[in-house]
Write a structure and sequence with these properties.
Structural class: mainly alpha
Radius of gyration: 32 Å
Shape: rod-shaped
Number of strands: 0
Length: about 130
C-alpha cells in the first residue's frame, strides 16, 4: 500500500517569466500579482528551483536590467542635456553651486565695485583740488 501525499501541491512557475519580471525591475507586489501567489510561495519556489532565496535571485536577475537601463540613459544623455546633468549628479557626485554662494559672490562683486568707485573719487578729488 502506497502512502497518500497530504497537503497542498507545490506551486511551479515558469522560470523565464520570473527572470524577466526581475530583469524589468518589477516590485515584489507586482511579481506576486503576475504569478498569482504570495512572496512566501515565490521564496520557497526560488529555494527549490535555484537553491537560493528570493532576494538573492531577485538581485541576480535584476542586475541585467539595471545595466540595460544605464546604457539607455547614456544614449539619452547624448541628446538630452538634463539627462546628462542628472547622471552627473547621481553617478559622478557633481552638484549645482548653491544659491547662497552665488548671492555671496554677487555681494562681493558689488563691494569691489564700491571700492573702485571710492578710489577713483579720491583720485579725482586729489588731482582737482590742488
Amino acid at each position: 500500500m502506497t502512502k497518500k501525499k497530504t497537503g497542498r501541491p507545490l506551486r511551479d512557475f515558469d522560470a523565464s517569466t520570473f527572470e524577466q519580471l526581475c530583469f524589468v525591475q518589477c516590485t515584489v507586489d507586482e511579481i506576486e500579482l503576475i504569478l498569482r501567489t504570495d512572496q512566501r510561495t515565490v521564496d520557497k519556489w526560488c529555494k527549490r528551483h535555484y537553491d537560493i532565496d528570493f532576494s538573492t535571485a531577485y538581485k541576480r536577475f535584476s542586475s541585467g536590467g539595471k545595466s540595460s537601463l544605464r546604457r539607455d540613459q547614456y544614449k539619452l544623455a547624448r541628446k538630452n542635456a538634463s539627462m546628462g546633468i542628472w547622471l552627473g549628479k547621481q553617478w559622478l557626485g557633481q552638484r549645482d553651486i548653491p544659491q547662497e554662494i552665488e548671492a555671496f559672490n554677487g555681494k562681493l562683486a558689488s563691494l569691489f565695485d564700491m571700492i573702485k568707485e571710492m578710489k577713483t573719487e579720491k583720485d579725482f578729488k586729489s588731482t582737482h583740488t590742488a
